[in-house]
Amino acid sequence: MASQRRLATMATVLTISLLAAACGSDESSSDTAGGGDKPFDGKTVTILSSIRDVEADRLEAAWADFEAETGIDIKHEGSATFEDDIKLRTEGGDSPDLAFVPQPGLLATLVSGGKVVPLTNLQADVEANDIAGWVAFGSVDGNFYAPPFGANIKSLVWYSPVAFKDAAYEIPTTWQAMLDLSQQIVDDGGTPWCVGAESGGATGWVLTDWVEDFVLRTGGPDVYDQWVAHEIPFNDPAIVTAVDAVGQIVKNDDFVVGGAESIPSTSFQESPLGLLDSSCFMHRQANFIGNQFPEGTTKGPDGQVNAFYLPVVNEGDPKVMLGGGELITAFSDKPEVEAVAKYLTGAEYANNRLAAGNWLTPNKKADISLVTDPLEQTFAQLLADSDVFRFDGSDLMPGPVGAGSFWSEMVEWVVGNKSTAEALDEIESSWP
Q1: What is the largest distance, in Å, between two alpha-carbon atoms of the chain?
Q2: Residue in 31, 128, 58 with CA at minimum distance from that of residue 349
Q3: Region at 326 (left for phi over 0; alpha for psi -120 to 50; beta for the rest)
Q4: What is the C-alpha to C-alpha distance for residues 432 and 430, in angstroms, rounded to an integer?
Q5: Which H helix or E strand runs over 389?
Q6: Which residues of 105-123 are buried (b: 16+ CB within 10 A; e: fewer)?
Q7: Percent of the chain at pLDDT exceeding 90
């Protein structure tokens, strides 16, 4: 039975103190570790996250069976101002038991405040079950604190299956094949790419995502990690190579609807809509951009839009994936808190949540066949097939760079105001 399997797994979470309490008398033994159905009956675990509305309803429904079988009452609070709230609450002595932290940088800030309880007992599970890289995301100064929860992916190329079929185009699997396809589309009288980077005060982040994807592909994960940590300078030859690779597409006026100069003034939200009328054939963007298509747009292999993996440079290269996600961060060392964290880290919760829809997990033990939506199944499969996962680099860099000069200098670069060298030199000089 599922409940028996879950309770057996939870046995590894129970601390010596709980076992001692269970053995202190016959009565306590029967209520806790003595094989009862609800080893934590009457306990409450609080969780703070940025997850709200329908998504919050889905995550709460996915752990309902766990609550019933363990006796733990999980109280989840979704906040639109999570980043500010979690800092204020931990500083004010009002920490939740757990939080779903969406950035490794924020995790490091919380750890530096001395309030985070490391979930060291779960590190082996993450190493065994999850896509490579997640132990590092949940670690600070080499010490593991937080296992992963959900994930999102960015290494995607959106396209029109109908347009591809009508033109007999094949999905490219290498960088050169994607360049060749782009040129073929031009030769056939079309425009291969829609690219829009306008995002108000955040204009330019679309271009930094492109660069991050290509640092992973041309330099590899080790170079990516060194770059993000500023162990190599921003103008290192490896980063120049990645930027110039991106330029082969985004700076080619024949390849981009409206030409390169239009990119900073084209809304990133409106840019993918060109796929629907064949204004363009491809659009590189994260899974969330699917929400920008009009209601009624069919998605998936047989729909109006679908997505494929942004190719690696050469066949056989590691399948690297750029994205983001949440980290399960503890502020209490109570046994029931660790039990909840362990459950949320495992495949059973992942399967429950996958079946509810609109969610991805880095846990390779999860059963992605439970995903019924065709497009979401594509995303889940692409994530599961990844050899390496890396967080969005600009989110990990200091604010003046990742949310400042990196954005602005890529805009100057794409419109031709600055060369690759000039733009990267300027970003490097801005690093605090």
Answers
A1: 82
A2: 58
A3: beta
A4: 6
A5: strand 388-391
A6: bbbbbbbeeebbbbbeebb
A7: 87
Question: What is the length of the chain?
Answer: 432
In 50-166, at which residue ranges do the beta strands (DSSP E only) sit? 73-78, 98-101, 139-140, 143-144, 148-153, 156-159
Q: Which fold has domain 156-321+391-430?
A: D-Maltodextrin-Binding Protein; domain 2 (3.40.190)
Q: Who's near 68: CB < 8 A, 6+ residues apart?
A: none
Does CATH place domain 2-151+324-384 in 3.40.190.10?
Answer: yes
pTM, entire model: 0.83
Q: Which amino acid is at 206?
A: V
Closest CA to 65 of 150, 1, 3, 149: 3
- Is 138 in contact with 146 (CB distance < 8 Å)? yes
CA nearest to 212, candidates 380, 386, 391, 412: 391
Residue 192's H or E segment, with its range, is none
The pLDDT tens digits of the residues spanning 283-306 come to 999 999 998 999 999 999 999 999
Spatial contact of 147 and 328, defined as CB atoms under 8 Å apart? yes
